[in-house]
């Protein structure tokens, strides 16, 4: 059985997420910046009392962002009991049904997306969206954080 | 689980989980009873208790369809029954067999069912075989009897006459000998020659052997544990369980409740902040919500509390097993087992505690003969003490072993390249001891040979720091080592100072907060450049400074007229955080961070404040290390170091002001609000369900200060609670009221220093108080 997917847009690329990985979509989120953190950690958000880490989709997938006027969307995913959100330009649609086809990942995809992919989704209109594996994505974030330990800045002050 | 008869498919997950939890409790109860039985082999009540627990365990296993566990517990029951009837004696072999079986039951509960004929189960059942143990004990006994009382008589009559005059063999009252002593004790061949000489020799032989207890004659040749724990389990009766007053509650439910309360606290904070200018009624209502929320918070926090005995329960077993392995004799003393702390703190405490106890037995306590040579008792002592003080739980683990040699630690650190020889020389003894917490300092063998301590101590500190705790060490070579652990009472809600740096806000946990210095009032000369970095000359010491804005690469820093230095302390190190503004102290709900943020090592967590925004909580220990590493601020000279202490300042009508060390203070209450009871001449106050004797220090006390001292709680009746001050602990001894240590001058006023020991012992009964005094304000 083909599962349901959430189709999102980031710049000129559409990305699909398995519906079971997605907890909810947030708009108009106020972020608290995280000092000295890698760029991919966009900030912290309050999700009804739970603190979730927002990941910058543009940095994560190396795709230039093209946000709409109303601001970006946060796709909240949940892995291993922890919530994180991915900042994307917009959420387009939730799709399911037999018209969908899950195909192997084509080698032509850029590595920043290919390495996080578990295949591509072909929809009825023949459009293709890479299906992002939430677990691979979280593993990449952990590596990035590990490779870039924070450096306290001696700075200067009067 | 797919085994035949397994009830898992028929039972819900909840029921399964409950049965499993119950079964593990039964195993724990069997284990505790066995350890106690080993110390008191003649108390049949303990065997009954062990039997009952084993039987309940079997019942639970049967209900779950665990034929493997049923088979094993049945064999345990059989042996316990024989011990109960006295057919088999309580000896080390029987105890080891039962404990090993209990261990295996615990393992089996975590695994899928195995066939009841599994080789391990079969082997364990064989070791539990009562008939085998009985025969073995009998064989030992007969060998002993032969060896100890063989007398070659020239004639049977002569022998008969001579034997009754032998002195009876008294079992020694001193602690039992080590296992290997009686196992390897050899018996000299019976002497030859005339009967008289032989009799003399036999007498000497018997005398000699009576010093070494034969296993059959003296039950319990257990491994070398003198686990004479001063616990509630002094009697053989099991502790009474107030079944009606306790129920099982899903931990997840408690967590959810705690989250909700946390949110309520946050909402309350927002409400309180928007109070200014509202009508009086609304103000009153909001205050009521504030009060109720605080109470709800306190109750909900209580649901997560568990006594520390839950973590100490395994100490007896660990010590027993380690003593057996190392040939040492160890006694355990426990005090304050009822001290409660958050379940999460308790879980996090188990591993570090295990490390500490292992170190104490393995490296701290010496072998009995070494101890005797050093003039100590052959039995080593490990004492565990726990108490509450000022919102934290203090745990002390002390041993009277060989201690730690600071010189050896210095040499080891230099050899490992952790610091230069010159740096090592500069370290005071106390600072040298701190080196055992450095990662990489201890690699088992070398530390064992050198200092006799250190395995995994960096792990201990790291794990405790993970829950906002600290650990300190003190030791005297030849006299022992003491580790003092400080854990937050609850991890869920804590007071924190909110500071501003640039446009961002951060929380500093109040537990780390020592002092705030107003930058505007500071003389320019107080801040100095040392080794290219800024330090504050403060209270006779040089304090490394870290400007939070620049350090965290934030946009703006230090606005005109608002800056402050927040003096913080963590892991024994201090740092001054230079911030732009102080926004006040709030109760915050600590939220966990995702692992990628924990990796940064800068944040102790995050919180959602009243305005709904997320605020990061600073990890003061990390910032302190960063500041010291950046600036390499020199350690202050030993002579400049002064001991300061946070003290509660109170007023006592007849004797003036007094300081009470805040670490001993539990709570302050208005006397009219406190629940006070009369008992003869004595007045008792109710402190969270516990009755505490009030020691009135004035004829008309208006406030009660609840304190703890030497594990005991006491209440002081005073006239007024003034404030909390960080003061230098220096006073003129012998000057002041009878309950004081001495007096010092504070703000040109004499202030006496409270001696709680004196209060406890001199003021056991005081004048009757009037409980109807309505004056004074509620704290």
Compact description:
The complex is a heterodimer of chains A (158) and B (779). With 158 residues, chain A is mainly β. Helix content of chain A is 15%, strand content 42%.
Strand-helix topology:
The complex is a heterodimer of chains A (158) and B (779).
Chain A: E1 5-10, E2 13-18, E3 22-27, E4 41-47, E5 50-56, H1 57-61, E6 73-79, E7 82-88, E8 90-95, E9 101-103, H2 111-114, E10 117-122, E11 128-132, H3 134-147
Parallel strand pairs in A: 2-11, 5-7
Antiparallel strand pairs in A: 1-2, 1-8, 3-6, 4-5, 6-7, 9-10, 10-11
Chain B: H1 13-39, H2 44-63, H3 67-85, H4 92-109, H5 119-127, H6 130-149, H7 156-162, H8 179-184, H9 195-210, E1 225-226, H10 251-273, H11 280-303, E2 305-307, H12 309-312, H13 315-326, E3 330-335, E4 340-342, H14 343-364, H15 368-373, E5 380-389, E6 392-399, H16 406-415, H17 421-426, H18 429-434, H19 444-450, H20 457-466, E7 470-476, E8 480-488, E9 493-501, E10 504-509, E11 513-518, E12 527-530, E13 533-538, E14 541-547, H21 548-551, E15 564-570, E16 573-579, E17 581-589, H22 595-598, E18 603-608, E19 614-618, H23 620-631, E20 644-652, E21 656-661, E22 665-670, E23 676-679, E24 682-687, E25 690-696, E26 703-709, E27 712-718, E28 720-728, E29 732-733, E30 740-746, E31 749-754, H24 756-762
Helix pairs in contact in B: 1-2, 1-4, 2-3, 3-4, 3-5, 4-5, 10-11, 13-14, 14-20
């Amino acid at each position: 059985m083909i599962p349901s997917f959430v189709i999102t847009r980031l710049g000129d690329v559409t990305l699909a997420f398995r519906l079971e990985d997605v907890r909810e979509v947030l708009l108009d989120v106020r972020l608290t910046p995280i000092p000295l953190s890698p760029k991919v950690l966009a900030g912290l958000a309050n999700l009804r009392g739970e603190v979730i880490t927002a990941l910058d989709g543009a940095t994560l997938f190396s795709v230039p962002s093209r946000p709409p006027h109303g601001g970006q969307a946060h796709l909240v995913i949940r892995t291993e009991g922890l919530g994180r959100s991915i900042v994307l330009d917009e959420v387009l649609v939730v799709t399911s049904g037999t018209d969908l086809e899950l195909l192997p990942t084509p080698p032509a995809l850029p590595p920043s997306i290919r390495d996080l992919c578990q295949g591509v989704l072909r929809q009825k209109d023949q459009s293709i969206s890479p299906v992002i594996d939430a677990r691979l994505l979280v593993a990449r974030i952990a590596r990035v954080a590990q490779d870039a330990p924070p450096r306290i800045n001696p700075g200067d002050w009067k | 689980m797919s085994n035949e008869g397994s009830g898992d498919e028929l039972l819900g997950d909840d029921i399964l989980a409950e049965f499993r939890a119950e079964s593990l409790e039964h195993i724990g109860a069997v284990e505790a009873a066995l350890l106690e039985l080993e110390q008191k082999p003649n108390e049949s009540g303990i065997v009954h208790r062990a039997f009952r627990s084993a039987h309940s365990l079997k019942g639970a296993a049967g209900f779950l369809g665990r034929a493997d566990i049923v088979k094993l517990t049945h064999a345990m029951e059989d042996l316990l029954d024989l011990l109960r009837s006295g057919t088999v004696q309580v000896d080390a072999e029987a105890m080891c067999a039962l404990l090993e079986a209990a261990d295996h039951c615990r393992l089996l509960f975590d695994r899928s069912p195995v066939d009841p004929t599994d080789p391990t189960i079969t082997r364990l059942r064989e070791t539990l075989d009562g008939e085998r143990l009985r025969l073995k004990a009998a064989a030992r006994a007969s060998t002993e009897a032969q060896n100890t009382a063989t007398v070659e008589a020239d004639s049977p009559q002569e022998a008969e006459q001579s034997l009754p005059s032998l002195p009876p063999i008294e079992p020694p009252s001193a602690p039992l000998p080590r296992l290997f002593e009686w196992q390897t004790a050899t018996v000299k061949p019976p002497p030859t020659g005339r009967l008289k000489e032989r009799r003399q020799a036999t007498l000497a032989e018997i005398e000699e052997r009576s010093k070494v207890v034969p296993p059959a004659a003296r039950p319990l040749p257990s491994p070398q544990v003198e686990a004479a724990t001063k616990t509630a389990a002094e009697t053989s009766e099991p502790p009474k369980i107030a079944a009606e007053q306790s129920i099982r509650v899903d931990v997840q439910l408690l967590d959810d409740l705690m989250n909700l309360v946390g949110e309520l606290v946050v909402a309350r904070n927002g409400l309180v902040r928007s109070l200014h200018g509202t009508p009086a009624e609304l103000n009153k209502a909001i205050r009521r919500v504030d009060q109720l929320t605080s109470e709800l918070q306190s109750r909900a926090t209580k649901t997560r509390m568990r006594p520390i005995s839950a973590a100490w329960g395994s100490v007896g077993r660990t010590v027993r097993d380690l003593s057996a392995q190392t040939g040492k004799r160890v006694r355990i003393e426990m005090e304050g087992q009822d001290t409660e702390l958050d379940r999460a703190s308790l879980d996090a405490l188990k591993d570090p505690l295990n490390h500490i106890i292992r170190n104490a037995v393995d490296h701290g306590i010496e072998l009995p003969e070494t101890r005797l040579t050093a003039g100590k008792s052959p039995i080593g002592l490990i004492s565990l003490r726990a108490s509450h003080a000022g919102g934290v739980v203090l745990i002390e683990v002390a041993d009277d072993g060989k201690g730690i040699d600071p010189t050896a630690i210095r040499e080891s650190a230099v050899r490992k390249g952790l610091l230069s020889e010159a740096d090592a020389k500069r370290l005071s003894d106390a600072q040298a001891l701190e080196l055992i917490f450095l990662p990489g300092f201890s690699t088992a063998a070398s530390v064992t040979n050198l200092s006799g301590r250190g395995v995994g101590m960096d792990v201990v500190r790291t794990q405790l720091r993970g829950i906002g705790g600290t650990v300190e060490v003190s030791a005297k070579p030849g006299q022992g080592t003491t580790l003092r652990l400080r854990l937050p009472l609850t991890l869920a809600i804590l007071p924190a100072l909110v500071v501003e740096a640039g446009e961002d806000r951060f929380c500093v946990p109040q537990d780390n907060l020592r002092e705030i210095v107003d930058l505007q009032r500071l003389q320019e000369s107080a801040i100095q450049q040392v080794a290219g970095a800024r330090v504050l000359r403060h209270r006779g010491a040089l304090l490394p400074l870290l400007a939070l804005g620049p350090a965290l690469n934030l946009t703006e820093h230090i606005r005109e007229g608002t800056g402050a230095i927040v003096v913080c302390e963590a892991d024994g190190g201090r740092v001054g955080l230079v911030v732009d503004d102080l926004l006040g102290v709030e109760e915050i709900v600590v939220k966990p961070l995702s692992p990628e943020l924990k990796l940064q090592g800068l944040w102790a967590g995050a919180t959602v404040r009243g305005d709904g925004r997320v605020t990061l909580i600073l990890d003061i220990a990390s910032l302190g290390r960063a500041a010291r590493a950046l600036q390499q601020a020199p350690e202050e000279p030993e002579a400049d170091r002064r001991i300061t202490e946070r003290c509660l300042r109170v007023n006592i009508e007849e004797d003036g002001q007094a300081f009470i060390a805040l670490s001993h203070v539990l709570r302050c209450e208005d006397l009219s609000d406190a629940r006070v009871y009369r008992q003869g001449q004595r007045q008792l106050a109710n402190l969270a369900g516990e009755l505490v004797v009030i020691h009135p220090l004035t004829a008309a006390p208006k406030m009660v200060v609840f304190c703890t001292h030497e594990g005991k709680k006491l209440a002081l009746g005073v006239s007024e609670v003034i404030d909390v001050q960080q003061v230098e602990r220096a006073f003129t001894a012998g000057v002041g009221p009878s309950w004081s240590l001495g007096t010092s001058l504070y703000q040109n006023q004499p202030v006496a220093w409270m001696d709680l020991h004196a209060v406890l012992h001199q003021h056991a009964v005081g004048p009757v108080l009037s409980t109807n005094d309505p004056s004074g304000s509620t704290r």
